[in-house]
């Protein structure tokens, strides 16, 4: 006998008619790849690149497992957006229709078309709003060719501008609420700035932490780097910055310049490697990816850091008591065309007057490039680059005036693209300078 269920005193339903609960939504599980599950410690001694100087410089480190992020929880109820109702007489005299419920249509007080809100203190459509603004702004005198009582409807509103203007005034549209072109442009710029500030808001704790992390590593390894150039094999007196000394009458020998250039270039790369080792996001990557990123970005990061000591007035680099000029690099063997492009890059970057956080974020943006050759964890590196880019963009929007910072981020991206071409050409130039390539084994590995 079929089971029966008593419902609401007298209503009987069979077991087949009882509604069954809908099945639970399908749960998506993201399996952890076998090669990434569990902790994994990689040491340079166990790697196939045991003899690699880059791997030796990076040293041993442990790579924590990469865990996929769980999918965001989906709410069963749709999200509703509250639209504030503006009343007539507010700023600009414009606003949505008050009291209009969902699906309710309000008519224009002038022509009867669909009203979009209050414009110049009257409920009108977009067409009549624009007509009223243009007519009053131009100051034209309109005359009705008929009896000054023309019917103004949606279909006939263009036949008699004079009667349409009069009906706009009769509906309550006010001439004094029309802004001038200059005031309107300023208001649009101010609203655009407010939209940007609302979009970015304050920097998050993670973004502030990233900036402090980069600044700390920068202060330990990069800032004091330039003052130590004088400790290496002494350069020729052409490099020494001494205002009381007369310029040399004959060109200096090339070999001391080559040895000094090889020493400081190797030292800069070593300090940049130490800088990256102080970044936990970089250390979390596999050793192979760390080497690939450094091969692609070490020289680019070096040029970004050199811009800190670049003097745009005389196109020289002041590193403590030493000054490096364009003529010194030409004397060593670099081609003048390449050096002119390099110095144009430094002039353009210096003109932006970057702050130290912007310099370190730009260097980190060059470091975390997922398109470097040999990279395996592209998604993770792309995520790091995106976080760095958003931090740089947010810092610019919060710490700089709108007129000064609105194009700064785009300019930095353009300079990073230009720096890639300079990086490739620099490697070619070094290989063709006799004697310099042999003295720089670390640079050989980076450019290989």
UniProtKB/TrEMBL annotation:
Entries under SUPFAM superfamilies matching the protein: Glucocorticoid receptor-like (DNA-binding domain), Nuclear receptor ligand-binding domain
Encoding gene (name): NR1I3
Family designation: Belongs to the nuclear hormone receptor family. NR1 subfamily.
Biased composition annotated in UniProt, kind: Low complexity: 52-61
Function of the protein: Binds and transactivates the retinoic acid response elements that control expression of the retinoic acid receptor beta 2 and alcohol dehydrogenase 3 genes. Transactivates both the phenobarbital responsive element module of the human CYP2B6 gene and the CYP3A4 xenobiotic response element.
Residue spans of biased composition, Polar residues class: 1-12
Intracellular or extracellular location(s): Cytoplasm, Cytoskeleton; Nucleus
Region listing for Disordered, in residue ranges: 1-98
GO terms for MF: DNA-binding transcription activator activity, RNA polymerase II-specific; nuclear receptor activity; RNA polymerase II cis-regulatory region sequence-specific DNA binding; zinc ion binding
Superkingdom in the source lineage: Eukaryota
Record PANTHER family: NUCLEAR HORMONE RECEPTOR, NUCLEAR RECEPTOR SUBFAMILY 1 GROUP I MEMBER 3
Classification lineage: Eukaryota, Metazoa, Chordata, Craniata, Vertebrata
InterPro entries: NHR-like_dom_sf (IPR035500), Nucl_hrmn_rcpt_lig-bd (IPR000536), Nuclear_hormone_rcpt_NR1 (IPR050234), Nuclear_hrmn_rcpt (IPR001723), ThyrH_rcpt (IPR001728), Znf_hrmn_rcpt (IPR001628), Znf_NHR/GATA (IPR013088)
Principal localisation: cytoplasm
Classification via Gene3D superfamilies: Erythroid Transcription Factor GATA-1, subunit A, Retinoid X Receptor
Protein name: Nuclear receptor subfamily 1 group I member 3
